[in-house]
Amino acid sequence: MADDLDAVLTQLVVQSPADLQRLVGLIRTTCGDTLSLTPLPAQTPVSAPESDAEKVVAEFAEQFSVDVSAISDRQREALTGALGAASFAAVIQMFFADFLPRVRNGLEVLGLPVGWVPEAPMWDPGIDAGDMLFNQLLPGVARLRSLDPVTTEVVRLRGAVAHNCRLCKSLRESKALDAGGSESMYDDIEHFESSELLSDAHKAALRYADALIWSPARISPAVASGVREHFSQEQARELTLDVMRNASNKIAVSLKADQARVADGTERYLIDEDGQTVFA
């Protein structure tokens, strides 16, 4: 099951920008502790903030992990006031620190291999984390095709609501609509357990997505069993990575940059063969 995405994930673990090295250590500790998961390793481990600026970053990172939609204007202003132009880079680091431990634990609970967190990392200060995220990781996950498009879209929309991403909630993927997705079905996502339109496989995927989003350290055996029952190992891995890809909306939401492209209704889009979003 190893592929180029494992190599990308490894690079994201070992990237250690010199100008943010201490903050990366603080962010990784904060997010891991907040989630009750093992933090990503860091070249400069930091157990607690030691300055007012670091306290601001730690508070923002904690809220980023707990519920990104609840980040306040005060917290945003404090972050940009403390970090200035480095704020966006710091938030990207929060996404890695927040979601890679979730993915690692989800895969382990499902009995799937995790070979991308090295025991003795060779730290690399030259990796461009933003480029890796937007040009390699996210498109790479989007190119995966073992899941059917409706399941992929149902899970994406669940994450859109969980993180209250205005842009994500306004979008509808064309291939999913063509494959049987509908607004009636999507309306049922909110109360999926009682839905007659969503399949048992959809419900198993949504339970797992909810667990990764809200209680990643406590993924129940029943939830894991449901995933294994309805999905192959390849599909289960893709499902896990899809939840992570969808959660990249936390970066925009945290910075209040998630404005929808349409004032009313929804907008169709599709993922092309390169994993890039193409709007209708």
UniProtKB/TrEMBL annotation:
<dbReference type="InterPro" id="IPR029032">
    <property type="entry name" value="AhpD-like"/>
</dbReference>
<protein>
    <recommendedName>
        <fullName>Carboxymuconolactone decarboxylase</fullName>
    </recommendedName>
</protein>
